[in-house]
Design goal:
- It contains 18 helices and no strands.
- By secondary structure, the protein is mainly α.
């Protein structure tokens, strides 16, 4: 318990140093790295690591935390906090078991958070003083130290004040100390100090509760529960009927996509890209999710089957996967048409990544349908984690700016070019947006100059502390310092 308290206190103080009144930057990487190292150390010391392979989750956790000082994307700064926490909890669950099914996985996730709050009481009880002679002697020593300080501090203050009035050099040394002390002792200073101490205390208790829940015997997380068994029983006729009818429908749909969408789009001048692509995507994505659920239900069905029924079920399931991939390709193609016409945005790029993720997820499902032993839940978590990390490191702001600006210079008369959208992007896109200063359109040049000037002013006012260090901001500032922007035009 002593080690857990020490580590929790260290992390609580560390988070205060890194994050209090600071913007997120390299501080996130430092804090997450410390948390991960201490977490693995505590679990290892208490022999709670059963599945060492689960340490692989450290890779996406560290990579996502590093984005806070590499890039400067406000959306991912928020999203990544939740994803990092989710991956950390997932790692704890997989470290504690060699194999886990999805119902038990969900239960254990709940136990991590529920047990954390439950175990806070163990941390609090550690500081309760038992009524015995040894502790009473310790209490007497504390009182003696307190009385000594009450006598010593006033004397020291009087001496300092007298010496400061006697020597100007000495006064300058301690003048700032007294000024800072007066700020702390003001009402505003006291409120800030109490707030900061409260955050440190809450962080300490939560960190301690989290670690105790993971390592102490018989906590909500560590106590042995019976495996949650989910039994699905449908008549084979029902399952096969659903699979057969869906395959017929998807066969017709696939034929329509191949003959009309893939072959005739470019020959149809009245083709409505906007409504066809956007509306079509959401419906098709939902259909693909339904297909995955049906496949899993069909293959965990516990009703006994004959050999011929098993073969038929497997063939129909594989056909569903094939048609699902066709549906995903159709949705991807529709979105590609939309992007070519209207450019790139966050939503449209997210669409592409969701579709690619679905294709990758279909691979372990196919392997499972072919009778190979594979942990589908773990495969899905790894694939989605990989895709999310990849999405972070593609530098999405820079990508959007580059592609849309390329489209503009290839076709300057394009009415769909949205300069206002680009000016909402962060410093990751600064280098690409400076290219618009060479545009022929005077409005676009002036709008770009105004955006770059405002960003330059903002960066000059933003004096980064070491905790807030961010490569994207630093590089953007260097780029803007080399740009000759008419400052007087905006004053």
């Amino acid at each position: 318990m002593g080690i857990i308290i020490g580590i929790s206190a260290f992390l609580a103080i560390l988070q205060s140093i890194l994050f209090w009144n600071r913007n997120l930057g390299i501080s996130v990487f430092i804090f997450v790295l410390a948390c991960v190292l201490y977490l693995i150390y505590i679990l290892s010391k208490n022999n709670k690591i059963i599945n060492k392979k689960a340490i692989i989750f450290v890779i996406p956790i560290i990579l996502l935390s590093s984005t806070y000082f590499i890039f400067n994307n406000e959306l991912f700064k928020i999203l990544n906090i939740f994803v990092i926490v989710a991956l950390g909890v997932t790692m704890c669950v997989y470290l504690s078991k060699s194999k886990i099914k999805w119902p038990d996985f969900l239960k254990k996730i709940g136990c991590v958070f529920g047990g954390m709050f439950e175990s806070v009481s163990d941390i609090i009880n550690t500081f309760k003083i038992p009524e015995n002679k040894k502790e009473n002697e310790s209490l007497k020593k504390v009182k003696k130290i307190g009385k000594s300080l009450l006598i010593t501090i006033p004397i020291i203050l009087v001496v300092l004040i007298l010496l400061m009035s006697a020597d100007q050099v000495f006064e300058k040394i301690f003048d700032k100390v007294f000024l800072d002390l007066s700020k702390v002792l003001s009402l505003e200073g006291i409120v800030k100090l109490l707030s900061r101490l409260s955050v440190i205390l809450i962080t300490f208790l939560l960190c301690g509760g989290f670690l105790v829940n993971l390592v102490k015997d018989n906590t909500m997380f560590t106590k042995e529960d019976e495996d949650t068994k989910v039994t699905v029983k449908f008549e084979n006729l029902t399952i096969n009927m659903i699979l057969t009818i869906l395959n017929i429908i998807y066969l017709i749909f696939g034929f329509i996509q191949i003959t009309n969408l893939f072959m005739n789009t470019s020959n149809n001048p009245n083709f409505d890209y906007s409504s066809y692509a956007r509306q079509g995507f959401f419906q098709l994505m939902f259909v693909s999710f339904i297909n995955f659920v049906i496949l899993i239900v069909a293959n965990i069905n516990k009703v006994e089957k004959t050999k011929s029924q098993k073969i038929y079920n497997k063939i129909m399931s594989l056909l569903i996967i094939l048609f699902t991939i066709i549906i995903i390709i159709s949705a991807f193609y529709r979105m590609n048409l939309y992007q070519e016409t209207y450019g790139y945005t966050y939503l449209r790029i997210f669409v592409d990544f969701v579709l690619i993720s679905e294709v990758l997820i279909s691979i372990p499902i196919i392997i499972y349908l072919l009778g190979k032993k594979i942990d589908i839940l773990k495969s899905i978590i790894i694939i989605t984690s990989f895709m999310f990390v990849l999405l972070n490191f593609m530098n999405i702001d820079n990508f959007i700016a580059e592609k849309n600006i390329d489209r503009y210079f290839n076709n300057p008369e394009d009415s769909n070019f949205d300069i206002s959208y680009l000016c909402k992007l962060g410093t990751d896109a600064t280098e690409q947006i400076t290219r618009l200063l060479k545009a022929d359109d005077e409005y676009i040049v002036k709008r770009t100059e105004r955006y770059l000037y405002e960003q330059k002013q903002s960066l000059n006012l933003d004096e980064m502390n070491w905790q807030e260090y961010n490569m994207s901001k630093k590089e953007a500032k260097e780029i803007l310092d080399n740009q000759n922007i008419e400052i007087n035009y905006y004053q």
